[in-house]
Write a structure and sequence with these properties.
The chain contains 20 helices and 14 strands. Strand 8 (332-334) and strand 9 form a beta hairpin. The chain has an 8-stranded mixed β-sheet with strand order 5-12-11-6-10-7-9-8, with helices on both faces. Strands 2-3-1-4 form a 4-stranded antiparallel β-sheet. Helix 4 crosses helix 6 (122-143). With 525 residues, the protein is α/β, with parallel strands linked by helices. It has helices at residues 3-12, 14-34, 55-75, 79-89, 95-99, 122-143, 173-198, 205-211, 232-235, 240-253, 275-288, 305-309, 317-321, 327-330, 351-355, 358-370, 386-390, 408-420, 449-458, 504-512, and strands spanning 39-49, 102-105, 112-119, 154-160, 216-221, 263-268, 293-297, 332-334, 339-342, 373-377, 396-402, 425-433, 475-480, 483-488. Keywords: ATP-binding, Cell inner membrane, Cell membrane, Kinase, Membrane, Nucleotide-binding, Transferase, Transmembrane, Transmembrane helix, Tyrosine-protein kinase.
């Protein structure tokens, strides 16, 4: 992994890293606050040798004290020194217990002895340090006394008396807080790296590139309102998510320009990746561009197209495949009349057999001859074989990958299933990819608030053209071979203008002044 990969992981997992860092800081502060403060008082003694006044005598005495001072520091915590101190102060503890709170040390190449005593009370710590220093002087003098009874040549002088400390020596709250923060940060980073290594789910376009060489032809950003507004191209055509579907439409239109597939199967690896809503929005976007599109709901296990589009789904694909209806009986126009929808019909007991039948092949061929684009929504690849079977009759397959819904091995297995049946995988559509607001092209929205409100209000009504039979206004019937397809022309009444300052009469006058190529509906010749 490169540095950029680590930075990407840190940005992705910054919440958990920050939470663990704060937890480490809070834990360290909590321990520091709950720990009883301990104060340390220190006294210092100087060791010298009484002797002659010549320089040689003084040098010998200095060397002697430096050699002996290391042994003297060990005497400080001995019962010989601490026993009398305990008796004098009436502490009521043993010498070994008191020795745990006393430290003695001598700086390198010096004749100094530092005695430090720790206690929860600063006054007690200072009193103990001074008492130990006084008893230590007496013990050393007694140990160094010559056998003839003359005074000891070793002299210990207190150069600094112990004073009651103002601040505690422990706990060190600042140091503990810094250490707790660093430990929490290290644990957070380690946890983030571990989660990234163990996480095999596909969450972005870059992850797809690590799994397969199949091109990513579209990326649909995650939208919190996708559940309430699944048909975003129709409900909010100026939104960034709607523009993502238009970019997907453009990419598909430029796939294999020499032999562009007219029939496309749309599927996914596992359920819940958003293949049906992706197919519907793509169909609407293609119809907006002027292509004649037919959307076939071939998910004969969990059909969803009719429900999303508000259509009657009792009669549909299965009805045509078993020979009880023709396409003209079940195809329903939707929107501007360039999009026709064939619902799934009733759920059969043998979906795979129907989709792999000769009747399905004839149906797809007829639709390809009649329409510019045929989109076929099929079940996921891994649970059932329907999509792999239906891909035999299509010119290509689009695989929808839901961010965080599918794992790498599942995508590999799904693409392998398509390769096994010889299907042509056109590309992959990454759906619900999480992105920051700054990267979601929010600033590309170029419409006024009034227009956006008016459009949203006018498009909440059902935009599909109702099926009223051959006599329905604005509809015509075209036959090609055995297929009868009902087509609706674009002569429906235009939606009400959302602005408030213009009347319909004024708009009619303005319309009369336009050249024929700018008029909606059929051109005047």
């Amino acid at each position: 992994m490169e540095l950029s990969d680590y930075l990407a992981i840190a940005r992705k997992r910054w919440v958990s890293i920050g939470a663990l860092s704060i937890a480490g800081l809070a834990g360290a502060l909590g321990v520091s606050l709950l720990t009883t403060p301990v104060y340390t008082a220190t006294t210092q003694l100087f060791v010298s040798v009484q002797g002659g006044g010549s320089s040689s005598d003084m040098l010998q005495g200095a060397n002697f004290t430096r050699q002996q001072v290391a042994s003297y520091t060990r005497i400080v915590t001995s019962p010989l020194v601490l026993g009398p101190v305990i008796d004098d102060l009436g502490l009521g503890i043993r010498a070994s217990e008191l020795a745990q709170n006393i430290t003695s040390e001598s700086p390198l190449n010096s004749s100094l002895v530092n005695i430090s005593v720790s206690d929860p009370s600063p006054a007690v710590a200072a009193a103990l340090a001074n008492a130990v220093a006084a008893e230590f002087r007496d013990v050393v003098a007694e140990l160094e006394r010559p056998t003839d009874g003359s005074p000891s040549p070793v002299k210990l002088t207190v150069v600094r008396d112990a004073a009651a400390p103002i601040s505690p020596s422990s706990p060190k709250t600042g140091t503990n807080a810094a250490l707790g923060l660093l430990v929490g940060l290290a644990i957070g980073i380690g946890t983030a790296l571990l989660r990234e290594i163990l996480d095999t789910s596909i969450r972005s376009e870059s992850t797809v590139a690590q799994v397969t060489d199949t091109a990513v032809v579209g990326v649909i950003a995650h939208d919190e309102s996708a559940t309430s507004r699944p048909l975003i191209v129709q409900s909010d055509p100026h939104s960034p998510r709607a523009e993502s579907f238009r970019r997907l439409r453009t990419n598909i239109q430029f796939l294999n320009v020499g032999s562009r597939p007219s029939s496309i199967v749309v599927t996914s690896a596992v359920p819940g990746e958003g293949k049906s809503t992706t197919t519907i929005n793509l169909a609407i976007a293609l119809a907006e561009a002027g292509s004649r599109v037919v959307l076939v709901d071939a998910d004969l296990r969990r059909p969803a197209v009719a429900k999303y589009l508000g259509l009657e789904g009792t009669a549909g694909l299965t009805t045509v495949l078993i020979g009880r209806a023709t396409v003209s009986d079940v195809a329903q126009p939707w929107g501007n009349g360039m999009l026709h929808v064939i619902p799934s019909g009733q759920i059969p007991p043998n979906p795979s057999e129907l989709l792999g039948s000769r009747a399905m092949s004839v149906l797809v061929d007829g639709l390809v001859n009649e329409y510019d684009i045929v989109l076929i929504d099929t079940p996921p690849l891994l649970p059932v074989t329907d999509a792999a079977v239906a891909s035999k009759w299509a010119g290509g397959v689009l695989v929808v990958v839901g961010s965080g819904k599918v794992h790498r091995n599942q995508l590999t297995e799904a693409l392998g299933a398509l390769e096994t049946v010889g299907a042509h995988t056109l590309g992959i559509v990454v759906n619900r990819e999480p992105r920051k607001r700054a990267s979601s092209y929010e600033y590309y929205r170029y419409s006024s608030d009034e227009r956006g409100k008016g459009r949203g209000a006018s498009e909440k009504s059902n935009p599909r053209v109702p099926l009223e039979g051959p006599a329905s206004h604005g509809s015509a019937t075209r036959k090609t071979g055995a297929i009868d397809v009902v087509r609706a022309t674009q002569t429906e009444a235009p939606a009400a203008w959302p602005a408030t300052g213009l009347s319909e009469d004024l708009l009619a006058e303005e319309r009369e002044g336009l050249p024929p190529q700018h008029l909606r509906g059929e051109r005047h010749r």
